[in-house]
Design goal:
This protein is α+β, with helices and mostly antiparallel strands. Helix content is 37%, strand content 9%. It is built from 31 helices and 14 strands. The strands form 4 sheets. The chain has a 6-stranded antiparallel β-sheet with strand order 6-7-8-11-12-13, with helices on both faces. It is globular, with a radius of gyration of 29 Å. The relative contact order is 0.08.
Length: 704
């Protein structure tokens, strides 16, 4: 069938599914259709998780040859769909968005009214016709919201975070409709003249390298939005929070220190959310997620056995405090290591404001530290990746030393049969075959993967399931006793439990040496957590393993390996049945989730949160890190500098050639600068610090 016939329009069913309705029934039919489209069609129509079941095809829904029928018009008890929705089984618990009680009530009334579909007219020439059918008139506000969602999901990372095309923020309605542009991004009511639609319809954007691409239905939403005149996007809420200045931050820290025992003050360190708090576009949810991300990361960077919850010390909940001793960070000069990487350090003892100078001097004296507070967002984005991730967690240079620390012996466990494995053709990070293996460790589980550059020769795990050919352990180097059937890996990922139950991460090459990033030809990240497909140790792993160990894999080796005799017995011993593997995965997931709940729930504004509900939350560290790397506007730069408005900065840029040399000139013309330019520490000081000097805000902090 022609692809055009398969496109499902907003508020418009397939012609074969259309059902006549009375005029007074139309609003209910439209509402119910929209609910099914919003919450169900992604799995049952786009991905077809139940073969042949398109939830937007009414003939399928009311087919009484299927028992139980998905919908028995007028009969809730006989309607399988209603049973699943009313019991909360569908959408599944893991779904991020679920229908409200009001929406569930609409579905109930809709079924009782006979489950009518909206009246529609689809003009379809022939199955081979390429002409786009007309669409019915739709609420423009709803279309604006849905088009915004498509752009945010597929386009905003490149055109809003990174600004790969200068000045194009895909979520800025005014920019999209700019009639002065050489090639207009959007021409209201004319998709064919709109660059956005041309790029989208021709599959030129998102680029071919992107693994997540809009569906036909999502493309149609954008087309309908343009046809409807490109109605405005939903208003972004502007928070009404008082501006938090350096003076107020110092005053809050001073008050906290004065209430502490003198011997404890030197171990107090502070992390501020001021840049997020002062952003009127940042929601309260953004602030909660930042606090949760900070707490989770802190507890992922320590060998302490207990979860350490940071302490909020101010009325705005924008400053968090820790005691270095609680994290065992006092013994290895961890704070000095952080300061060596910190690009926003400004010593305020030279501030032109005498009150700030006095507060700074007192805070520095009480903590015996020249810079006892730093930004939360920078810390989350940078301490979650090398080099800080490796240094703060004190990870060794190779997996053998890590295994010795965790009391794991992969070779011994392989020989004795206490290791368990699963092997499969593809995984979420690789198109090559892969093996994952579990060992018991000092603090819980020790998982490692064997990854390959291709599927041939000794990289084919179905022909060679009993590797690796060489085991390198802290006890020595050992050859596989099944050498003819031993694979040779290109590298791997290690996931291990920390003493507090959270997880640590470790990437290795084929020789077991620690590496910062995974080779792109071996593994890649379709979510692009770090802004590109590269897997970066720490951050990429945290974003992927948000609920601990992933359980989607299914072993294909136990029944499919080419092994016989003693080798077959070893395969069956290692590659355990699915039920056994699932039991271990469930146990390891629960250990992680219990620790995660302890670390993040105090900051999610929930008194008691179940482990299942916690799984529905976004992974906070990767969320905060992603927002931190966004390109910076004039407003963002002013906020980073602690300025309550853009006026002083704008005037300074226009009158100070040095600021233009530093790359800030484009800001006054509506342009942006890259975050990695702004916070780069190439040389003695960062661009931020140099700008702060030009504005007489203070003196750059140096860690040497």
């Amino acid at each position: 069938m022609n692809a055009n016939r398969l496109i499902l329009f907003l508020a418009l069913p397939l012609l074969s599914a259309a059902s006549p309705v009375r005029a007074e029934e139309e609003p209910l039919a439209q509402k119910a259709y929209h609910i099914l489209q919003t919450y169900c069609h992604g799995c049952h129509g786009v991905e077809f998780e139940v073969k042949g079941f398109d939830i937007l095809d009414r003939e399928i829904l009311i087919d009484n040859s299927v028992l139980p029928a998905y919908i028995a018009p007028g009969n809730l008890q006989e309607s399988y769909l209603w049973q699943m929705v009313s019991e909360g089984s569908m959408p599944p618990k893991k779904a991020k968005t679920r229908p409200s009680d009001e929406e569930v009530g609409i579905l109930k009334e809709w079924i009782l009214q006979g489950a009518p579909f909206p009246q529609a007219v689809l003009e379809s020439e022939t199955e081979d016709s390429a002409e786009s059918p007309e669409t019915v008139e739709i609420d423009g506000r709803d279309l604006g919201e849905q088009a915004y969602g498509v752009f945010e999901k597929y386009c905003y990372r490149c055109h809003g975070v990174e600004f790969k095309k200068q000045g194009l923020n895909i979520l800025d309605h005014q920019v999209l409709l700019d009639t002065n542009a050489e090639t207009p991004y959007v021409v209201p009511e004319n998709p064919d003249a709109s660059l956005v639609w041309k790029q989208l319809s021709e599959d030129a954007m998102p680029p071919k390298s992107s693994r997540t691409r809009p569906t036909d239905q999502e493309k149609q939403i954008v087309r309908d939005w343009i046809l409807a005149g490109a109605p405005p996007f939903p208003e972004r809420e502007r928070a009404e929070r008082p501006f938090l200045s350096d003076k107020e931050i110092l005053r809050s820290i001073q008050t906290d220190l004065q209430g502490r025992d003198e011997n404890d003050r030197v171990f107090r360190r502070y992390f501020t959310l001021a840049q997020i708090h002062n952003n009127e576009h940042a929601s309260e949810k953004d602030l909660r997620m930042a606090r949760a991300a900070f707490s989770k990361l802190l507890n992922s960077l320590t060998w302490q056995s207990e979860i350490v919850v940071p302490e909020i010390i101010d009325e705005h909940k924008a400053i968090l405090a820790i005691d270095l001793r609680d994290l065992i960070w006092d013994r290895e000069d961890h704070w000095d290591r952080i300061m060596a990487e910190y690009p926003y350090g400004i010593v305020l003892e030279t501030s032109p404001d005498p009150e700030i100078r006095h507060l700074a001097e007192d805070v520095y004296r009480l903590t015996n530290c020249q810079l006892p507070y730093i930004r939360v967002d920078w810390f989350v984005a940078n301490a979650s990746r090398p080099p800080l991730y490796h240094d703060l967690l004190q990870l060794p240079d190779n997996s053998m030393a890590l295994e010795e620390k965790l009391r794991v012996d992969p070779y011994k466990n392989f020989v004795e049969g206490s290791a368990i494995r699963a092997g499969f053709l593809q995984s979420g990070v690789s198109t090559q075959n892969r093996i994952v293996e579990r060992h018991r460790s000092l603090f819980g589980a020790y998982w490692l993967s064997y990854d390959f550059r291709d599927n041939t020769g000794t990289s084919n795990i179905f022909r060679c399931p009993l590797g690796p050919r060489t085991f390198r352990t802290h006890e020595g180097v050992f050859e596989s006793p099944f050498e003819p059937l031993a694979f040779e890996q290109a590298g791997g990922e290690i996931i291990f439990n920390l003493p507090n139950g959270l997880q640590g991460y470790f990437l290795v090459d084929g020789e077991h040496h620690r590496i910062d990033t995974g080779p792109i030809e071996v593994v890649s990240d379709s979510k692009q957590i770090v802004g590109n497909p590269t897997i970066v140790n720490g951050l990429s792993c945290m974003g992927c393993h948000k609920n601990g160990m992933k359980s989607e894999f299914k072993d294909e080796i136990r029944e499919g390996a080419g092994a016989f005799g003693e080798a077959l017995l070893k395969v069956q011993e290692l590659y355990v049945p699915k039920e056994e593997m699932n039991n271990w995965l469930k146990r390891d997931e629960e250990r992680f989730m219990l620790a995660l709940r302890k670390s993040v729930s105090p900051f999610l504004d929930v008194e008691r949160i179940s482990l299942e509900d916690l799984k529905d939350y976004e992974e906070p560290i990767s969320e905060v890190a992603f927002k931190y790397i966004s390109d910076l506007s004039l407003e963002d730069v002013a906020r980073d500098l602690g300025l309550p408005s853009t006026d002083p900065l704008s005037i300074a840029i226009q009158n100070n050639p040095e600021l233009k040399i530093l790359g800030l000139g484009a800001l006054t013309e509506g342009g942006f600068i890259h975050r990695d330019h702004w916070d780069s520490l190439q040389g003695v000081t960062s661009v931020f610090q140099k700008v702060a000097v030009q504005l007489s805000l203070g003196t750059p902090f140096r860690s040497f």
